[in-house]
Amino acid sequence: MPDTTVFVLDNSYYAQNQDYLPTRYIVQLDIVNYALSSSSENHHFGVIPVAQQTPNYILTPTKNRMNIRQFISNLKFTEEYKIPDSIYIAQRSLQYVDATQKRLVVFFSTPLSDLTLEDVLMKLRDCAMMRCAVYVFLFGDAKDYKMFLDYELNDMGVVVTVVDTEDNFKNKAMDVLAGSSLEEMEDPNLALALRLSAEEAERNKK
């Protein structure tokens, strides 16, 4: 049974901002592409954009790397974004796959209303309750939500990480993913790649 990872990508208009170089959107793609190239060929990946130009414009988990990269390259920026709905769709896509380990990786940099943030919280909690490893990366306009999400999800095992503009986004994300899940990872190639990336990030800090 292959491992499965679903990425929720922030492709809202806010993701075009260049406070994270080259843009908020491209730093997310760097991590996705690294995961695609570092994992075993049997590892399945799905992509759920938070802003969908048409309803249910998503990529359910597949091991076909060409299809994944094609889907990502066709994504457009749109004004309408629905992060809670995207997390729910990601949860449903993970719920019905037969995988050794399921992971949800959520990126978002957009401002949310209090009501929407509560909805995001409930959707993340639902994912964690179905024994899915959940990682949330907050950056840009979403950094201030960490305290709230940490407090509410503290006992659920959800890993919430803030990435600042001065951070190396890719290195920090790889460090978090490797340090939090290596012991449980069933994909040895991805585990090794994440470990090496984390070690390189440590050396670069010195």
From TrEMBL:
<dbReference type="InterPro" id="IPR002035">
    <property type="entry name" value="VWF_A"/>
</dbReference>
<feature type="domain" description="VWFA">
    <location>
        <begin position="5"/>
        <end position="109"/>
    </location>
</feature>
<dbReference type="Pfam" id="PF13519">
    <property type="entry name" value="VWA_2"/>
</dbReference>
<dbReference type="InterPro" id="IPR036465">
    <property type="entry name" value="vWFA_dom_sf"/>
</dbReference>
<protein>
    <recommendedName>
        <fullName>VWFA domain-containing protein</fullName>
    </recommendedName>
</protein>
